């Protein structure tokens, strides 16, 4: 993937570039006819996007090349928590809301983080308990996850895919600050 | 790549693997599951790798999975040829050079060693590591591992999961080989059925029966699916199983495929488990290369293809029909059964789904037979189950136990109880589909049926321990919030029903719930359970129904008293400290007022919240310390000592007169109502004070000639100088409280008299009757109960105290007696039957007693008191105890041993608890409970007799000063409401204006402690043993407050 | 195996065809079991849970729309518990979105409304959610008002199974579930919609309606869908 293929902030309608079509064609061929094909394809598309989301144009093309109805693709893309239909921030801070983390105070961490980054709940129209919100400057996305399965380290926070265990408010502030500074330099 | 096609090539591969597992040189294997990595195992591995390279030593370095003890991560296995395998704990990267030094010398760093393994039963093989290092405990001697039986986790943390040869070396794929050679699918299914293996995903359906359905299905192809979409919050055993031993999963599926005729396999694994996905991909690829997957497996003409699909984050996909829809490229919405997957599953073809752990059990059963499997576990639920033991427990980690093991073994023996000595309240099993089991039911065996009886389920094996700081209403709300957001939305009961359940639960946690809400919630929960389409909806109400069943009083507290005892529900408390304070003092307010240098306002604030701030400032058990959020940064704010400072600065000072007048001026206009308070102890004083402030006429009766009760007569002067108490009582008089002393209820005045003369009566008599234990020799001269002894000393009356004193007990009265006896010049020994940490006395008091020269004998249960010829005490004999099983309080029960200790002495003080003298209450129309205490309404403190209220020791048994005062305060509020028919309580407080912003930089200083007088000097007389904070120290403490009372967005 | 079985419904002996569901067997003999997501001719989904019945010897309640009859089965379609649950489910539907009958095109011709009357739902004990659900009036002939949608998915199924267009599906999950047109397009921009109107005819409430009707004027003919499928089946 090269960044030249990225759609802009607001994806322009219209056909994809030849490279993008080619990429998607190869992806489809690789998974065609296998159980879990649609999930695997969507996961790969999102993973290969720098902004970790599913561009609508891609889904359109996918529908036309596989014959899977667009409504079904949209249904799948909005059903699973992993998929994003909006571009994600440059950095992701993900707070675990699993039971062990909850009993050890993850809600206070989440509240602190929202305050710290100036994000209010439910930006994505999601309910308050399922958060995925991006700061206006596109730097940070705050997410919650049902459980990382890192319960022995509770409470757990993931900052840019790095797991931090036994986090308290001070550690969280320090990490976010470190990432922010790293981002600006 | 050499494909395995016969026994010779099989054995060849095994040999190669054994050489890696037990090489000729030392081997270091770093535990690198996700949990290890989260604790820094990656850098530990690199540190070893660098050091080994630098030194050029011959050491084999490998990665392995997790051995299960997550609290001790990172774990590192060290094996020196001929020696046992040693597991090191909490290894840091900079430990690597020293460890290598030790290994070079044939030694093990003792400080890091967790345990040793001489030999290991891989079930499918037996490995002998060696002998030696006897000073290191064997693995199953470590409490966390004791009682564990590793069948599923047989290889986890011991082999390299990325190396198929190591798996082969420990007997991997042998069961597959056997099944293919025997070529008798029916026999294998029979064996699984005979072993009564039940699905480990939660429902517990017989695995053998499911396989038989698939075998009989006619259509082709048949699919086998492994459900590794572990989505229960609080459960992560499947992740560790895959990360530590992926080939065992593949082998189980291969055997299943062979005997059911399936040709396609799919592992559906959570995308949130990248390491597990990676390890599985590697394992599948290796198995294909070695001829164990694909066409013509092991040269026996059997074909099976295995692929991997990453689940994209939907808990409902744990439901088999939803998982199948997900694989078909649709949203994971379950479909009704019938048709069952065995008839019409993936793409309408016969399909079988089993959980990861179920597949792990297959190879051992095939190899060792069903009879062997039935040896472990309970008859209906044989075998083991892996649990993730997490939450408020010291030893967190993965625990594999035989099914049927009682819950208390998990919580206390393996888990070591809650951290910080808190009391465990409940265990949550089964995640969002399960329920909460209260601590008094911890004898319950953990198996499918027993847990179901309590309304919970075993589920996939999550076990989350909750302590007294967890609110059960919040826990119920939390789980409903989870299932609500994971509901697929297809059926109405689950989609809308859970939304409304969440609404009611949120209302209750916000303090807006009603009794009607509780009833609706119960009805709604039952409907959702009975009417939902799939397992998610059918089980989602379990957390609500079980908490309502076992913890109804917590729901009622939230609704009726607007209280969350655990302090979790923020809307119901000003701040965590206020919530924990029995008097509900507005602690942040007086701290802030002091910080603003407004000492006089601070005093008014304190004394309006607590009429005995100087006394409680010295003797309170300070529950606020345990809840202070500052403790998360360094240490709790010393709130008790700050209000002692504020009180001590005003009472003896000239401003007292003016401030006492200011407080008295807050008294409401006279109501004309008359109230009697029986007992001038802390409970009675608190109640009388507030009733007077509320404008009622108050008369306090006491049998003593003065006020103060236990504060005056049970607390020695060195803890609470009586002039301090006198000044506080003076303020209480100034607001209008009157006293009648030397008057005993039922003798000088009867309850009927009180009833006739007063509009309300509050009973607040203390526990003055000593519990008399049955002990041979208590009739001897020199045996005395603690309270009368302390009372006599406080009144300056003579006591028959000898030179060598033994105190029996571990509460505050025992310690007070001991320190008093020391001051009277005696030699003191305290005998206590449990451990130090179990002592109910304030911890600092125990330390102070020891510093002053008291000896304490722990784990000794008094057996008899021996007298001399003259009938005087000569010695105390006690039976040494050892710690047995855990009791319902979470403490280990002392069990007698043969050993007897004898302490020579001439005095024995019994401080084993006090009781209330209820003689007065008999035939008075007051209902008395079975435990000998007066029955009151929990929320109003009203007794069964109209106009009569009771509080303090009378309703709780012996307690402490602050709790007792809390009841007095609460009673005053309720009595006032009864007398006036209005809720006037909060109007007692004038408005205090002070800064309501969170400090950007809270004070950086550490917690200030009180200074103590030199122990040996202070033990000579009864002068106060501690000095309060200085002005600067008190200010600095106030500045440390984080102001939890300030709400964002207010 | 005989292709006819005998079952008892509310004590009455009934002969049914093997392979029939309980609901089919019951309606063939004129017995009423309430349901909203079921529409004869479409694949049953068991979503509304109104058709739950008690079957002797089975601990849990079974959806009659998907449970096949078995010889000797004894079914109870009315009981205090069933009535209670059904009413509660209807109340939940009313509380979920904005079902304001007075201004609805389907007023007096609405299956939800009729069922509520029949089952005696006189009030809703649950608090209303009042969501802001969108209305799509872009289509030339039809209008979609999500405020009246109960997510029965009849439209989704009729479009995919009968018309073969698969214009509709359900996006999101839980209470956030919404009917979506293709990749979340306006209906007018749909590329697969044939404007056949089957979705409108099958909709039990006023969520899908033809344009140009005032309140109370929209009368739907869901049974035409059933007859169409029957005719197709007979032709094949």
Distinctive features:
heterotrimer, A: 185 residues, alpha+beta, Glutaredoxin, 2 domains, five-stranded mixed beta sheet, 5 strands, 11% strand, disordered N terminus, B: 1050 residues, alpha/beta, Rossmann fold, Ubiquitin-like (UB roll), 6 domains, 41 helices, 34 strands, 37% helix, 17% strand, globular
Largest sheet geometry of chain A: 5 strands, mixed
Summarize the amount of helix of chain A as a percent range: 40-55%
Number of β-strand runs of chain A: 5
**Rg of chain B, Cα atoms, Å:** 34 Å
CATH superfamily of the largest domain in chain B: NADH-ubiquinone oxidoreductase 51kDa subunit
The residue fraction in helices of chain B comes out at 25-40%
Please report the number of helical segments of chain A.
7
Total beta strand runs of chain B: 34
Structure description:
The complex is a heterotrimer of chains A (about 180), B (about 1050) and C (about 240). With about 180 residues, chain A is an alpha+beta fold. Chain A is built from seven helices and five strands, in the order ααααβααββββα. In chain A, strand 4 and strand 5 (about 160-165) form a beta hairpin. In chain A, helix 1 packs antiparallel against helix 2 and helix 1 crosses helix 3 (about 55-65). With about 1050 residues, chain B is α/β, with parallel strands linked by helices. In chain B, the strands form nine sheets. Chain B has a five-stranded mixed sheet with strand order 2-1-3-4-5, covered by helices on one side. A five-stranded mixed sheet of chain B has the order 10-11-9-8-12, with helices on both faces. A five-stranded mixed sheet of chain B has the order 14-13-17-15-16. Chain B is globular and about 100 Å long. The relative contact order of chain B is 0.06. Chain C is built from six helices and ten strands. Chain C has helices spanning about 20-30, 80-95, 110-120, 155-165, 200, 220-235, and strands at about 5-10, 10-15, 50-55, 60-65, 75, 135, 140-145, 170, 180, 210. In chain C, a hairpin with a 2-residue loop joins strand 1 and strand 2 (about 10-15). Chains in contact: A-B, A-C, B-C. The interface between A and B is large, with 48 and 66 residues.
